[in-house]
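To start, an entry.
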Amino acid sequence: MNRTLYFWPVLALCLTALAGCIDEYPEGPLVSPLPHAVRVVNTWRWSYALENGLNRTGERADSTIQFTQDRVVKICEAGTANCREGKWELVRKNQKLNLIFGEKAFAYDILLLREFEMWLSLADTAAGQSVDWELRPYKAPE
């Protein structure tokens, strides 16, 4: 009898945590069955790009950023074969995403990480750089 008494509140708590209240809380569920690295690996496109206070969404509209399983990141400009290649890694308990290009490393805060959406933010006051990116999976033109 005692087991059933605890079952319903625990079930309600679990469902609430997993549901994420999509309309009220767009950041999604509190718990995801997919590890952070699995959700990062994808070819993404910019749905929003604010860089140093300037809206760069139009300039980045057809550009892609690809994260591979072997921790390679590749940023390709729209309509060209011009790509930058580097490494990526998750740090600080999967709260930051490091992008490393040669000797330079950039630590982006992960604001949101879903299977089909990723928001990144960078505020480097020493370098005078600020970046807010919203990424969605890239779908190649058919």
About this structure: The two ends are 59 Å apart (CA to CA).
